[in-house]
């Protein structure tokens, strides 16, 4: 049978059928369709954007172009990180500083976006000032991005990540400070992140559709393939992602009793986004508490906390921020471009237990069983069995 050019990429079965008939003749159409049907049933991120462009962005073509440019940028960053780890360090002996790596990753993504003609500004966590784009009639959006999270993991081959959010600007388009008033659930159009690890994973949520979708990059096809649509965070879980070594510096006293009473497994990967992904898939809580020497923590509201809190809410979770860990992150209005905040986000039942604790109504022993996957006695038995093995 003759090869059909670009068999992996047709968006519609009808267009494929037409190509096959022209190329091979009517008698072979059934054989070809049966052979390639599994490939055609795979949903890709590119195809999803094209097929749902009207639903996602009310027909604004620049929005689809913007997301496709981001998609291309993330693929390039994936290859760039592999080169940092293998080619440059171990073969050529070149070891770059974290600042140089961050700058190169940022340039890779930004360069893909400069020709989209649909952005007013790009807010990068790696820059003090915004990146101003030449105004044009098509410009409708503001992009906030943290180029790389968990960069310290690069030497140990642990996961790293990129977070991004697309905001709808207000009427004042010539003042970048206007972006400070765009932060929040009403203004965010898209929130997402990409994790670069054993596999490259894209998790994204659209305000228009209110679904969290998970994609995984396939290097053979060169596409992000749909893994799951409508991702939901479990109602409860026994995982707590927190830097437990700094417990003596925590300023919120209730956390000291809440964490050991409610959780059997305490994890910390060195990447905030990777920790969030663990909670999204398995349930539990992610904590970045205010510290005695750093009461505002280190995570920026516009570029990191808002997109992840947006994903958390659409997936069914709850998130809090502020000095007392009691404010809705999506309602916090930053006063500075790179303002930071402590936070607490996770499974809905666990977060309700936190509310009860703040109100002085948390019954530790009884509610541990209700809000956890396993009860404390069972957790201790599991820990003993793992130590023996």
Biggest sheet details: 8 strands, mixed
Number of strands: 14
Output the strand order for the largest sheet. 2-1-3-4-5-6-7-8
Indicate the mean pLDDT.
77
Catalogue the unreliable spans.
1-13
| Strand composition percent | 15-25%
GO molecular function: fructose 1,6-bisphosphate 1-phosphatase activity
Catalytic activity: beta-D-fructose 1,6-bisphosphate + H2O = beta-D-fructose 6-phosphate + phosphate
Transmembrane segments: 188-209
Pathway: Carbohydrate biosynthesis
Structural description of this entry:
The chain is an alpha+beta fold and about 400 residues long. It has 12 helices and 14 strands. It has helices spanning about 15-25, 30-40, 45-50, 55, 60-90, 100-115, 255-260, 270-280, 300-315, 350-360, 365-370, 375-389, and strands spanning about 120-125, 130, 140-150, 160-165, 190-195, 200-205, 210-220, 225-230, 240, 265, 285-290, 320, 325-330, 345. The strands form 2 sheets. It has an 8-stranded mixed beta sheet with strand order 2-1-3-4-5-6-7-8, with helices on both faces. Strands 10-9-11-14-12-13 form a 6-stranded mixed beta sheet, sandwiched between helices. A hairpin with a 4-residue loop joins strand 7 (about 210-220) and strand 8. Helix 3 runs antiparallel to helix 5 and helix 5 packs antiparallel against helix 6 (about 100-115). The longest helix is centred in the N-terminal third of the chain and has 31 residues, at about 60-90. The model is unreliable at about 1-15 (pLDDT under 50).
